[in-house]
C-alpha cells in the first residue's frame, strides 16, 4: 500500500515536470508535438543501523532528472536528485523539511541538513542497505 502511495506521488511530480517543459514553447511556423519523456521507476526498501527501515520510490526521467518519494516519520516527502562525486544526493523539494538522502550503489543515508552551513548535517539513519525485492 505504501509503495502505491509513493508511486502516486512520483506520477504527480512527473506530470508537473512534463507540463513545465511545454509551458514556454518557442515560436515556430508549425506546431511540433510536445517533448516525450520516457521514465523508469523502482521502489526500494532499506534496512538501517538500529533496525530502522525506510522506503523510497525512485523515478528516473530520460532527460536526466531524478526524483524520489521518501516515506519517513509517518509522512511522504518528494526529493530531487543531484549527482554527487560517488553517488546521488536527493534534496527535499520542500525547503522547510531540510532532509537529504544520499545513495551510493545499494547503500543510503538520511540526514537533516544543518541550518548553518558551518555546522555538520545530522545523520538520522545510517548504513541503510537495499533489501531484495519481495516476490
UniProtKB/TrEMBL annotation:
Please identify the protein, giving its name as recorded: C-type lysozyme inhibitor domain-containing protein
Key words, A-Z: Lipoprotein, Membrane, Palmitate, Signal
Signal peptide as annotated in the record = 1-20
Pfam families, sorted: MliC (PF09864)
Top-rank taxon: Bacteria
Residues forming the C-type lysozyme inhibitor domain are 46-116
- Which Gene3D superfamilies does the record cross-reference, listed alphabetically? 2.40.128.200
Under InterPro entries, the record lists: MliC, MliC_sf
